[in-house]
Q: What sequence folds into this?
């Protein structure tokens, strides 16, 4: 039995879909959501953000994977595709000194052959009603730091509307987020976390979940859905409630970034619900 799509959705946080750093792949053998990392430095490569480039490379590589590929084999192929890009663009030496320049992405992917969900980074999954998250400790640190900074800004006289135009809390934590690139894919570091960036990943850092035999329902989503539910409507509804009640995402749901005036949400979002 193959992959049957029940529903899927992709929406960028900005009005322009070309700026969306989330992507979706669905074919006979794989279903995946890909979340390109937010551009912290402001640096663009060929007119695109590093996160967008990473997501495109991952999507293209997944699209040509052999159905029987292992987790390790998939990572090797994606990393080779990214290394090829770095060499073509002459970026390897610069990335060695400025780790935050490396395009990076997270992903949750279902392999129909292995009947497994592989979570690399903080993308989410629901398998037969059970939620699987893969959050990193660093996000809690930066989210709380930003929350504290914004609370102080409000006490000093700024309004929520002011901060929706210019999020000074996000500006405050940017140097900290740049630093976290230096502990990527380091299982021995207390703050280490896994990410797809063209360099080796310790397989022990990746969440692997078996999907029960027989008919099963699987949901894959990026972290643009802070409260993932069993269908798209409910996930969108609870997101809409959050954006209405706490648009800055610093109280009800603490995040490293919030809604910016004129945007659709605080983050790009991708959602796939399939039956296998």
A:
């Amino acid at each position: 039995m193959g992959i049957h799509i029940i529903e899927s959705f992709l929406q960028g946080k900005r009005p322009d879909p070309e700026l969306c750093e989330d992507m979706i792949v669905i074919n006979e053998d794989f279903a995946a959501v890909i979340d390109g990392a937010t551009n912290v430095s402001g640096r663009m490569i060929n007119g695109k953000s590093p996160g967008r480039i990473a997501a495109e490379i991952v999507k293209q590589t997944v699209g040509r994977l052999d159905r029987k590929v292992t987790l390790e084999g998939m990572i090797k192929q994606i990393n080779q595709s990214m290394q090829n890009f770095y060499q073509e663009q002459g970026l390897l030496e610069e990335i060695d000194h400025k780790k935050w320049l490396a395009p990076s992405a997270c992903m949750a992917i279902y392999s129909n052959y292995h009947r497994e969900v592989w979570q690399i980074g903080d993308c989410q999954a629901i398998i037969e009603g059970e939620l699987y998250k893969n959050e990193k400790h660093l996000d809690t640190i930066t989210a709380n730091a930003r929350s504290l900074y914004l609370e102080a800004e409000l006490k000093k006289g700024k309004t929520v509307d002011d901060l929706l135009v210019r999020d000074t809390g996000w500006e405050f934590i940017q140097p900290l987020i740049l630093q976290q690139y230096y502990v990527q894919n380091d299982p021995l570091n207390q703050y280490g976390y896994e990410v797809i960036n063209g360099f080796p990943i310790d397989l022990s850092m990746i969440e692997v979940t078996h999907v029960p035999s027989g008919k099963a329902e699987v949901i894959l989503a990026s972290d643009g859905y802070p409260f993932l539910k069993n269908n798209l409507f409910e996930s969108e509804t609870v997101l809409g409630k959050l954006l209405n009640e706490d648009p800055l995402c610093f109280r009800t749901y603490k995040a490293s970034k919030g809604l910016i005036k004129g945007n659709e949400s605080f983050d790009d979002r991708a959602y796939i619900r399939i039956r296998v």
